[in-house]
Amino acid sequence: MISEKAKNISPSITLEIGGKVKTMIANGEKITNLTLGEPDFFTPSKAKLAGIKAITDNLTKYDLSSGNLELRKAICEKLESENNIKYTPDQIVASNGAKHAITNAAFAVINPGDEVIIPVPCWVSYPEIVKLAGGVPVLVPTKKENSFKMTVEDAQKYITEKTKMVILTNPNNPTGAVFTKDELLSICEYFTKKGIIIMSDEIYESITFDFDFVSVASLSKEIYDNTIIINGFSKCASMTGWRLGYSACNTEIAKSIASIQSHMTAHPSTISQQAGIVALRECKDDVLTMKNTYKQRRDYIVDFFKNWGKLEIIYPQGAFYAFIDISPLKDKLNSDKLSLKFCNDILDKEKLALVPGAGFFEDDFVRLSYAASMEEIKDGLEKIKHYVENL
């Protein structure tokens, strides 16, 4: 009864941990949960009020399949003022979250058998979305010493005549690494000259700490024409449940994305879109407050691991994740599924929930989310220290 395409989708390797955490909480156990990939802030008040106003003003009818025109204008304003990139509203498609924007773009450009370069570690949904679109995910290993940021040298041996697209995530989930302008220019010029479309997932762009974020499409006219930007409101404005994202790309691809979306979901919620307009235009102070809070937490975590000295992390320059290297514990844990063993064990013994790196295709690491209170973070770090020192 099940389609071959559905059978080809891999279940999340982290479901075991997630299900265990839920069961333990339901049974009344107190868990320090540092797994969540969503901000621990509420949606800014002005955006919430805009959503309420949209309801009372009866803005609840169908709109354009590519999204509300005023929202797309606001997105264009944002891209020009913050990223120095000029787009017109017909190049923007508003979607039901950034994940939906990625799926739309994949369906718009991938033909059956096309290969898509995905540097690992990576967000778990990329390979599955590629497979749903009929493509072949090609997972490219990267180097810890380069904070797992892909280089031309990493990618070259995986390029074939079937390579159609590459997915870049900047800032990165799960590592928190951020590309510099020079690093981006090197790889993006390479892919553009090869005629390989760049999908640049920039959902965490508002959360960068050490230098200014650089959008791929701002690098050159040639790269701009070859790039599909993915972004949204879940991370920057803490609007995860509102389900609002967008893509920005050349007019030809944008038209195809809008056509695909018109048949699959039509457009995002009209209420969410009104909140999104205000989030872009009137909530910059809220976004900055969140960023500064994340930075304080990042700095505390970095100092903790530096002073402790037993385990290392990839230095996080963005997003809200710390990627912890647990490879020194291999002999003590004695498992061919290191990160799963670690996460299950520390959950049982210390009541601390982390995400196994195997879910991101890097089994020597686990991910800690610091989208949590400082009290929870401190508690979680002490539990890691206690667990490791008692192995």
Automatic annotation (TrEMBL):
InterPro entries: Aminotransferase_I/II_large (IPR004839), AspAT/PAT-like (IPR050596), NHTrfase_class1_PyrdxlP-BS (IPR004838), PyrdxlP-dep_Trfase (IPR015424), PyrdxlP-dep_Trfase_major (IPR015421), PyrdxlP-dep_Trfase_small (IPR015422). Keywords: Aminotransferase, Pyridoxal phosphate, Transferase. The keyword Transferase applies. GO terms for biological process: amino acid metabolic process. CDD domains: AAT_like (cd00609). Its cofactor is pyridoxal 5'-phosphate. Transmembrane segments: none annotated. Its EC number is 2.6.1.-. Residues 30-384 form the Aminotransferase class I/classII large domain. One of its GO terms (molecular function) is pyridoxal phosphate binding. It holds the Pfam family Aminotran_1_2. It is an enzyme of class 2 (transferase). Belongs to the class-I pyridoxal-phosphate-dependent aminotransferase family. PANTHER family: ASPARTATE AMINOTRANSFERASE. This is Aminotransferase.
